[in-house]
Amino acid sequence: MTADEWNALYPVGTPVMAYPSCRPEYDAAVAAEYRLVTVTRSRAWNLGHGAPVVAVEGYSGGIHLTHVDPMPATGRCPQGHTFEDCTCGGGR
Fold first, then answer.
1. How far is CA 56 from CA 27, 75, 78, 79, 80, in A?
2. Which of 17, 23, 76, 87 has the maximum number of C-beta atoms within 10 A of its C-beta?
3. Which H or E element spans position 8?
4. Can you state the percent helix, strand and coil of the chain, rounding each to 5?
5. Is 18 exposed, middle or buried (0-12, 13-18, 19+ CB in 10 A)?
6. What are the pLDDT digits (tens) for 45-91?
7. Residue 10: how many CB atoms within 10 A of its CB?
8. Which of 5, 28, 20 is nearest to 55 (CA)?
9. What predicted TM-score, i.e. pTM, was given to this entire model?
């Protein structure tokens, strides 16, 4: 997803699950340790080399959009876990 596509869909303040280090499908233990249940604090933008990122509360700098999942209004991943308790990666 491009920064423009993200911005068209998700305003600043959107609830998200962010994985600053790695996604759970790559290393569930590391992802669970460092994931953030948070909200966006900026519009998405492109870094100098073109990677689209967004800033979230609780983390300095931008996180690549492939590591940020908007949370549905239900507050649960497709497997039914709350996002705080999700380890299946279903919040993506």
1. 21, 17, 23, 24, 24
2. 17
3. helix 3-9
4. 20, 25, 55
5. buried
6. 999 999 999 999 999 999 999 999 998 766 666 567 776 676 665 54
7. 19
8. 20
9. 0.77
